[in-house]
Every structure is written in structure tokens, then in C-alpha cells.
Structure prediction request, 424 residues.
Amino acid sequence: MQNILNKIKKIIPKELFKAGQPIYHYLLTLTGAIIYRFPSKKLYVIGITGTKGKSTTVEIMNSILETAGYKTSLSNTIRFKIDEASKPNKYKMSMPGRFFMQKFLADSIKEGCTHAVVEITSEGSKQFRHKFIDLDAFIFTNLSPEHIESHGSYEKYRQAKLNIAKNLNNKSKKNTIMVVNGDDIESELFLEEQADKKISYSLSDAKPISLNNGIEMRFDKTTFYSKLEGEFNAYNILAAATLADALGISHETIKKGVENLSEVKGRVQKIDLGQDFQVVVDYAHTPDSLEKLYQAFPNNKKVCVLGNTGGGRDTWKRPVMAQVAEKYCDEIILTNEDPYDEDPQKIIDEMKKVIKNKPVYDIMDRRAAIKTAIKTAKKLGGDSVVLISGKGTDPYIMEENNKKTPWSDFEVAKEELQKLLIKK
Prediction:
């Protein structure tokens, strides 16, 4: 179908094609819902959106529900899971089109699932992929600038997120619940949307918090310990715990569900092969998420591997993320990420030119960049950490003419670390 669309795009005038896209996407979504008989009406569906933390919050929420004895399905940037069957998401998008979401929900019902936890993105909202997914509950994690070129403005990006919350206002579901990060500047706008029950959470609810080698935090009178790292994950835990509490799940079960989740793939994911320094893979691809990743390792010498996406995507981020790296990193290695149809060297040069006061190297081969970072961390000693950001679990490097080169930051870093340890 994509080949047909590409041919049509060449024939139809650009403005006419652009004007017809919303109608096309809406009809496609409606057709999928009809074919699969509106499956969301037969499931308890939890939708999660925000700029950051969506996938992790999906995983935490799923772990709590499973611990409570529910049979679940989940859909996020990392994977698709129905009951015990799980497969990695290789679509390079959190909400695939072509009827995917409706079929996913229908398959969840066939396998006896009662609850579905779904990551819903602004791009999915823009293309109406969230439509006809009637929500029982909704979590808003946070909002910061992203996908600005795609949406046209921050305001339009924000509206795409708000449109997702409107899926709570449906006639097929009763006792709908909205959970909102009360510390976010946009929280009041989300709380204005319709829901039978609205709850906001704040990091102050979890104090005292310890972020030393994991997270120790309070939820009401219960103390949780999580192996996840960083203040941002404390927020993600709070979001899931707040909804679970509203669903009547006991605090002891919530605690077990949180503690059962030892890692989230591609999200501050550590590689430990017995080395005396840390190696971490993370999806951070916005200035805010990159800064929060670096802040999660305040007492470490940081060797940072990062790049930026091409294809005209959020070009404003490039110098800003470079400045964040300069502020926090001891050594900076700029490398290829997803250049699409742009010159990858041009992307790196736009970042490199703003870094003035820290050692910075551009190594275009991403494997070579990771290898160099690991060798550098070894030389720096036991308090050093390699932070590889930007791709997380992304399965490909996206290049010119839609070329997809299979890739895994985690596997490549693991391989290079193994080679180094063998030589030792």
C-alpha cells in the first residue's frame, strides 16, 4: 500500500495530497474498527501519552496489573505483548497504521486478555490512529517541545495530545479515570477534559526519595524500591501507582508490581559483564530527556555518545542537545543516528560547532563510536559511565532512499564490551 501511496503522491499536486491526508487516515482507522468490530469496547483500555516516559509507564502499569492477577496486553515503542507472547516493535513507530491497533486489540480479546495498556503518540493522534479506541483510563506523563516540524507548532503538538484525552469521553465506558502529572505546566489543560474521576500526582507525594543506585520512594504509607534509575522514573512509577490505586489494587500489590520490573529495554538499560565501569543505553532524544539522563549519574565521569535525527526532523534540537552534552559530559563522541536523506556529517557539524569547552570527537561509524567510548571509560576508571543515547531499542539506522540498516545499540555495546574484556 505504501508503494501505491508514493506513486499517487507523485501524480497529485502537493497541496491537494496534503489536504486529502486527514480524510484518508480517518477512513482507514474507521474501516479497521469496523472490520475488527470495535474491540476496545470489550476491554479495559488504558491509554498513556506524553513527551517522555510513555513506554516505561506502560511497562510499569502492565507489571502491576499482571501482579494483581490480570491477563494483559501492551503496545508501546519497545514491544507488543498479548498475554505471555511478546515481540519487539520493529516498525519505528509506537502506533503502526494499516488497521494494526484495532487488530492488536481484537487479538487481545481472542487470547482472553481483560486489560490493554497502550502508548498513544501525537503522530498517532495526528493520523487519527487513536480514534475508535475507547479509553477507560488515561495517563498524561508530561509535555515538552517535540515533533514541531511535523505538527507545525508547539500548540498543535499539544492539541494532538489533548485530542487523545478526549477518548475518555465515550458512551461505551463508565467510571473513566484521568491521571495527570500535576507538576507539568500543561496539567490544567488536561484536567479540563472530560472524565468521571480526575487525579493529579506530584513528586512531592513520594518524598522522601532516594535516587542512589535505583529509586526508593513513598506511595502513601508504602515504601517502594525500584531498580530503575533517575527522578524521571520516579514520576513514571507514581503515574502507574496512582492509576492502580484508583483501580482498587492494594498498595502491597502495587509495590510488588513495581519491584518486579527490574529493567525496561532501551531505557537506562545497563550492560554489566563484570567491568569496573558502567555502560548504559537510553532512548533520550530530546534536550529535556537527555539532561535528565545525565542528571541520573551525578557522581560519575560521563563518556557520552549521541547524535541527532535527520530528514528535517526537529533540527532546532541539534545545538541545544550539544549544549546539554557539553554541560554534563566529560568526553563527547558525536556519531551517526538516523540521517534519513540528510548528510550525516552535516547533522554532526551543527552540533559540534557549539561545543567549545569539552573534548569532542566525531566518529561517524556508530559501532566505532561506541567502541571508543567504552575504551575511554575503561581508562577513566571505576567511577565512569558510558551513556549511549538516541536510539534505545530502535531496530534500524534509517538512511537515504528508505534504506534500513539493522541495528541494536544494546547488542553492539555488549559485543564491544565483551571484546575489551577478552583482551584484558
Notes: The chain has a mean pLDDT of 92. Residues 340 and 360 are 24 Å apart (CA to CA). The chain has two domains: 2-260, 269-423. Residues 2-260 form a domain with the UDP-N-acetylmuramoyl-L-alanine:D-glutamate ligase fold (CATH 3.40.1190.10).
